[in-house]
Amino acid sequence: MKTKKIVTFGELLLRFSKDQHQRLTQGDYFTSKYGGSEANVAVSLATLGDQVEYVTRLPETPVGRAGVLRLQELGVGCHHVLFGGSRIGTYYFEPAAGMRSAKVVYDRANSACSELRPGMLPWHQILQGAAVLHISGITAAISRSSLEATLEALDVADEMGVSVSYDINYRKNLWKYDGADPRATLSMLLSRCDFMFGDAIEFEYLCQRRQPPYTATDTHFEMQMQEYGEWFEQLHQQFPRCRKWLMGMRNMVASSRHLLTALLYTSDDGENYRLLRAPIHDINGVVDPSGVGDAFMAGLLHAIQAFPNDDQQQLNYSLAASALKNTIPGDFNLATDEEVMALL
């Protein structure tokens, strides 16, 4: 299958974590891996066989160069990575264990990507021949100038007829610049997208509407589809441009056992919408849930091109890709198309 280019735009991060479920306050050593939401999407798409280009800004240092090399090793195009600034953003990750929740500590102030400004990236050249531009709310959160750079990219995408994919990715600890208004900003981005993803909590935060609870403890849980349908219909009236709404839903029975499913509210003609549900995956043996949402989004973007006339297959594929990510350490989903299809 020959696919059209997908462009992802956002910050590459360096993740530090402890082995064997140690707390951040324990042990002497950290392990490091590259990650970041939009980079995760790019790697997943490349692993699935898609043509993908990743756009970011990194410091001209061995650490920044190593990040690009890692992405290129995994098949991601990095022709438009901009070098400048003094540091790469980092975060420290403490994995969940038993009844203890995971913990994330960010250290990304004044990162190279947060200093991006409009005019620094050649968006007309970057988006030439692209089918989709993928962004997330994280890039809008790290600084006002990176938000403005994101809006510039959206303006060019609209001008060139490139579809926009958007992950809500609400991170409350990142919105620190003067005048930051996360709900208004994330809603504005949603109003400009064609395909979107968010988990159930992000949907509720952004739209300020309660939804039916997802409390599955096995694969026989009955979804309240009529109530969800009414809920999505209200959302679509508020944000009429979006053609595909993908919501990931997870119930964590324990740190190593998650019940994962998804809903897709979709339309082929922009007028007649329908709500689809995916089967529930009972993942007993979760290794690393980081990047699961990014795997969802990458799975959907791949499936839109692979199964253009089968919305149910698009949904099932994105869920299967996300389920497999739970079994892979690190931020990147390295599940192949063959593995996803085998799980389906």
Question: How is this structure best described in words?
Answer:
With 344 residues, the chain is an alpha/beta fold. It is 35% helix and 24% strand. The protein has 11 helices and 15 strands. The protein has helices spanning 37-48, 62-73, 123-126, 137-142, 144-160, 182-190, 200-207, 225-238, 292-306, 311-325, 337-343; strands at residues 5-9, 13-17, 31-35, 52-55, 57-58, 82-83, 89-94, 103-107, 130-136, 163-167, 195-199, 244-254, 257-267, 273-277, 281-284. The strands form 3 sheets. Strands 1, 4, 9, 10, 11, 12, 13, 14 and 15 form a 9-stranded mixed sheet that branches. Helix 1 crosses helix 9 (292-306) and helix 9 packs antiparallel against helix 10 (311-325). The protein is globular and about 50 Å long. 45% of the residues are buried.
